[in-house]
């Protein structure tokens, strides 16, 4: 019997490869680049705040239409090959987008194509691979895996912001293309599923992968729909706050360089949120842990609603949003595996992904439209507070997880 952290000593290479892939994938650097690019794209092409924010909808649409398919393929054939191919396609798509002209609909089409190309670089893929290797410390392992996107959250505002200021918006996509291409190296060397690595190709699939609910069983459960609905609301609100934070701060006369640094603080908080949440859900009642962290943006919204704030309070608001952003992405795969098992993990995560990213895609443009109409984000922040309260209350009542044996 391995001691408490023996799983990490045996499987750390898989975890690191997955973390690198998550950071370079379409839900890593690409998502964190959106807030940095709102102002440069608006200035270059004369697009409104709502038009540029609308790109999130098309990025998300690619996730939504492909997630059930990706889940099916991942469960049936494993995640290694699809991750490698998708990283390569994502890199090429990012290079292709640099040739875009000033037509906003061309930009939307390019982003949708990029999202489809990178559909197998989402947390669905990386967490499924890692979950097969960890049982006792699965929550912490998944949290560490998704710190890859938290690292992207720290580096993207600083590195891409600097490159965009020095050159133009195209530099951001070139750098992200290089990152996706380099991520292929650790993924090809170390990213395997338990029971599907090359030396076990003729052996039966690990029994861990056979435990849990089927899709039809999960769909008959009220718990599944509460889970999906809560993350639809929470995902939409937190994503909007992350994307609009830099514009929100610059609109309040904060220098852009300072706003970008504060966005970097939010990225650091994402890492803390993921690791801390992963550590706690292995020990305490998962819905209560989830509710605690996912309620933090409510405080952030209240703080950002103030007309004038000292810098330290703005940093606190950004930290609360980042902690929740780190927790939500960690909690979706963890709760999927904990409440429904690994038998149909990819398919079920794919469907939760649809709900989660429906909120992520729909709400940010609404925030942008509210700004265009009112000249500020006050009404949007009030709406976010109400939606977050409902989402947090729903997730807190999921009940005790079942035991699979």
Tell me what you see in this structure.
With 405 residues, the protein is mainly α. It contains 18 helices and no strands. The two termini are 18 Å apart.
In brief:
Helix content is 77%, strand content 0%. By secondary structure, the protein is mostly helical. Helix 4 runs parallel beside helix 6 (104-117).
Shape: globular
N- to C-terminal separation?
Answer: 18 Å
What is the count of β-strands? 0
Question: Which CATH top level class fits?
Answer: Mainly Alpha
Query: How is the CATH topology named?
Result: Growth Hormone, Chain: A
CATH superfamily: MFS general substrate transporter like domains
The radius of gyration computed from the alpha-carbon positions, rounded to a whole number of angstroms, is 20 Å
Low-confidence parts lasting 5 or more residues at pLDDT below 50?
198-205
User: Kindly state the mean pLDDT as a whole number?
Assistant: 84
Q: What labels describe this entry?
A:
405 residues; mainly alpha; Growth Hormone, Chain: A; 18 helices; 0% strand; globular
Topology of this protein?
Blueprint: H1 6-24, H2 29-45, H3 49-53, H4 55-77, H5 80-97, H6 104-117, H7 123-131, H8 138-145, H9 147-166, H10 170-190, H11 215-219, H12 222-251, H13 256-281, H14 286-294, H15 296-304, H16 311-340, H17 345-374, H18 378-395
Helix pairs in contact: 1-7, 1-8, 1-9, 1-10, 2-9, 2-12, 4-6, 4-17, 5-6, 5-10, 7-8, 8-13, 8-16, 9-10, 9-13, 12-13, 12-16, 12-17, 12-18, 13-14, 13-16, 14-16, 14-18, 15-16, 15-18, 16-17
């Amino acid at each position: 019997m391995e001691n408490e952290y023996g799983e990490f000593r045996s499987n750390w290479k898989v975890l690191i490869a997955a973390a690198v892939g998550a950071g370079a994938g379409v839900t890593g650097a690409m998502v964190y680049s959106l807030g940095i690019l709102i102002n440069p794209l608006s200035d270059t092409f004369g697009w409104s705040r709502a038009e540029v924010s609308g790109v999130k909808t098309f990025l998300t649409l690619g996730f939504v239409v492909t997630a059930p398919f990706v889940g099916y393929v991942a469960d049936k054939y494993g995640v290694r090959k699809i991750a490698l191919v998708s990283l390569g396609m994502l890199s090429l798509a990012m290079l292709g987008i640099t040739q875009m002209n000033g037509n906003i609909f061309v930009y939307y089409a390019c982003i949708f194509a990029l999202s489809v190309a990178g559909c197998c670089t989402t947390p669905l893929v990386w967490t499924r691979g890692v979950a097969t290797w960890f049982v006792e410390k699965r929550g912490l392992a998944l949290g560490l895996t998704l710190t890859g996107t938290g690292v992207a959250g720290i580096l993207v505002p600083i590195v891409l912001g600097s490159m965009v200021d020095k050159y133009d918006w195209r530099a951001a996509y070139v750098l992200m293309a290089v990152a996706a291409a380099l991520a292929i190296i650790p993924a090809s060397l170390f990213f395997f599923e338990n029971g599907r690595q090359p030396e076990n190709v003729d052996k039966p699939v690990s029994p861990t992968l056979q435990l849990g609910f089927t899709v039809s069983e999960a769909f008959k459960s009220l718990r599944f729909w509460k889970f999906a609905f809560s993350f639809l609301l929470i995902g939409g609100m937190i994503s909007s706050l992350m994307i609009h934070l830099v514009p929100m701060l610059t609109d309040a006369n904060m220098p852009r360089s300072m706003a970008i640094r504060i966005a970097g603080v939010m990225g650091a908080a994402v890492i803390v949120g993921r690791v801390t949440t992963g550590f706690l859900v292995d020990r305490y009642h998962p819905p209560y842990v989830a509710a605690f962290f996912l309620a933090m943006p409510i405080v952030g919204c209240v703080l950002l609603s103030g007309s004038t704030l000292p810098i330290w309070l703005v940093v606190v608001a950004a930290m609360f949003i980042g902690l929740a952003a780190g927790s939500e992405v960690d909690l979706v795969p963890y709760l999927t595996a904990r409440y429904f098992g690994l038998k149909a993990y990819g398919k079920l995560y794919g469907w939760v992904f649809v709900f989660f990213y429906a909120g992520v895609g729909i709400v940010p443009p609404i925030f942008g439209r509210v700004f265009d109409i009112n000249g500020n984000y006050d009404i949007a922040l009030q709406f976010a507070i109400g939606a977050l309260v409902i989402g947090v209350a729903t997730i807190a009542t999921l009940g005790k997880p079942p035991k699979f044996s």
